[in-house]
Design goal:
The complex is a heterodimer. Chain A is α+β, with helices and mostly antiparallel strands. Chain A has three domains: about 45 residues, RNA polymerase II/Efflux pump adaptor protein, barrel-sandwich hybrid domain (OB fold (Dihydrolipoamide Acetyltransferase, E2P)); about 80 residues, OB fold (Dihydrolipoamide Acetyltransferase, E2P) (Beta Barrel), CATH 2.40.50.140; about 80 residues, Ribosomal Protein S8, Chain: A, domain 1 (2-Layer Sandwich), CATH 3.30.1370. Chain A contains four helices and 15 strands. In chain A, strands 7-8-9-11-10 form a five-stranded mixed β-barrel. Chain A has a three-stranded antiparallel beta sheet with strand order 1-5-6, with no helix packed on it. In chain A, strand 5 and strand 6 form a beta hairpin. In chain A, helix 2 runs parallel beside helix 4. The longest helix of chain A has 16 residues. By secondary structure, chain B is α+β, with helices and mostly antiparallel strands. Helices cover about 30% and strands about 30% of the residues of chain B. Chain B has five helices and ten strands. In chain B, helix 2 packs across helix 3. The longest helix of chain B is centred in the C-terminal third of the chain and has 30 residues.
């Protein structure tokens, strides 16, 4: 079964007709009088149960309530932090959502998170009119101590996680580093030697680059076995 | 340069000064994603025009310039001093301001600004070499760069200038034809919607000629549009192709 089959996913550009107006549409597609059109440069997903949708090949992160994101503190206020989450909109983390009772006279929020710190958080709300707000009131959220940050194209994060987490659980098992993957495309690599980190980055870049190809999980698996052996599979 | 006569611009055999026929557009090439720091970019060659477009954004606009219900689109068209025969002053001229606005208004109907409230999208257009019809070539470059930046759009925008020489309508005029011809009529369209987003005119055309010009433009825009689409697909389809079975 070593026959080479070239499978190509359908790449569309904005304005391309995807079908007639009876189709259901999700992200990246819009209805006009006579049909359904793409509004993004991306890959078409026709089977999705929410309707036809386009997975963007480029572009920034748009926050969605409940998303796990990794953010970088860019400003410390009296009662809140301003966080860069790789989105057009800067996010806000209120001290209440960090579980801190603040008296601005006696407490300096810099003691908790300072400019340049990375934090793991959930998106609490986002309505495009007010800045997206974050929360760290759950286990495992909060300041990230150490690690190497990298950023990937946000629309390709689902591929790094894989179907039902298949890719990320394989990476967790087989890599010598630990990964914190934010839906917004920021990833923190922790632990491992310098070589392990370099290898991890190369694997992540490969997944990012080949996100829309078939059989990617198998190719990544091969790569990991080649490097670390198959005792962890 | 001395003024050329109409006969020098168009021979009795219907050949133009650069060897083209009246219904022949200049060679058109599009390269996508030529810059890595910009969020989106495109390099367009339309005849001797060489135009680079880079897109930054969307990012949160300054408080005083943001709209609560839509994004702000800003366009800056600029010509390099070495882009023309005579050195062009590098300062931002009145003409460039006007063209920036015309190009912005040609792109705005295509960009779905309401998807990105409070943000700003910047389009920077650098004319590296100019040979007539730079606003059209700029629109062609900018719309591809916007798509490359992952900005939601209803359609791409494609443009071409129709001219009149020796009382004949000609397609995609160059600088000489622009300066010495009887009319310059740039047209931009959203090809899939068949909607016009830019229509300017310099010179004189009668009603019948205007109608005919638009029909001619529609045809050329169709073929230029195909080249834009193919350039985008060529850049991104390899990402969607499987290496093995």
């Amino acid at each position: 079964m070593s026959e080479k089959i070239e499978k190509v996913r359908e790449v569309v550009v904005p304005g391309e007709k995807l079908g007639d107006a009876s189709l259901k549409t999700a992200e990246g597609a819009y209805k006009d009088n006579d049909g359904v059109y793409s509004s993004l440069l991306g890959v078409v997903e026709r089977e999705s149960d929410r309707g036809i949708r386009i997975r963007a090949l480029r572009g920034k992160y748009l926050p969605r309530v409940g998303d796990f994101v990794i953010g970088k503190v860019v400003e410390v206020g009296l009662m809140d932090w301003t966080i860069d989450i790789n989105s057009p909109y800067l996010a806000r983390l209120d001290s209440k959502e960090a579980g801190i009772e603040v008296d601005p006279i006696t407490i300096d929020l810099r003691h908790y998170f300072d400019v340049g710190d990375y934090i793991a958080a959930h998106v609490l709300s986002f309505d495009r009119v007010t800045p997206p707000s974050l929360s760290i009131r759950e286990r495992g959220l909060g300041k990230i101590h150490g690690g190497i940050p990298i950023s990937v194209i946000p629309s390709r994060v689902p591929r790094i996680i894989g179907k039902k987490g298949s890719m990320i659980s394989m990476l967790d098992k087989m890599l010598k580093t630990r990964l914190l993957v934010g839906q917004n495309g920021y990833i923190i690599i922790q632990g491992g030697s310098a070589e392990d980190v370099t290898f991890t980055i190369s694997v992540l870049r490969k997944i990012e680059e080949e996100a829309y190809t078939y059989g990617l999980t198998d190719r990544i698996k091969e790569l990991l076995i080649k490097r670390y052996g198959d005792k962890n599979v | 340069m001395s003024k050329l006569s109409q006969e020098e611009l168009l021979t009795d055999d219907g050949i133009r000064n650069d060897g083209r026929r009246v219904d022949e557009a200049r060679p058109f090439e599009v390269e996508v994603g030529v810059l890595t720091q910009a969020n989106g970019s495109a390099l367009v060659r339309q005849g001797k025009n060489v135009i680079l477009a880079g897109v930054m954004g969307p990012y949160e606009a300054e408080r005083h310039s943001q709209y609560l219900d839509r994004a702000v689109l800003k366009v800056r068209y600029h010509m390099q001093p070495y882009s023309t025969n005579d050195r062009k002053s590098p300062t931002y001229s009145r003409r460039e301001m006007e063209l920036s606005r015309a190009i912005r208004e040609a792109l705005e109907p295509a960009v779905i600004l309401t998807d990105l409230p409070r943000t700003e999208i910047d389009v920077f257009i650098e004319v590296l070499q100019a040979d007539g019809g730079t606003r059209c070539a700029s629109v062609n470059a900018a719309s591809v760069a916007l798509a490359d930046a992952g900005i939601p759009m209803k359609d791409l925008v494609t443009a071409v200038a129709i001219g009149k020489i020796r009382d004949t309508l000609v397609i995609d005029i160059n600088d000489l034809e622009d300066e010495n011809g009887q009319a310059d009529f740039p047209i931009a369209m959203m090809p899939n919607k068949d909607k016009i987003t830019l229509l300017q005119m310099n010179g004189l055309l009668d009603e019948a000629e205007i109608k005919k010009s638009i029909d001619m433009a529609r045809g050329v825009i169709g073929s230029l549009y195909t080249i834009q689409v193919n350039a985008l697909k060529k850049k991104y389809t390899p990402l969607a192709v499987s290496k093995e079975g």
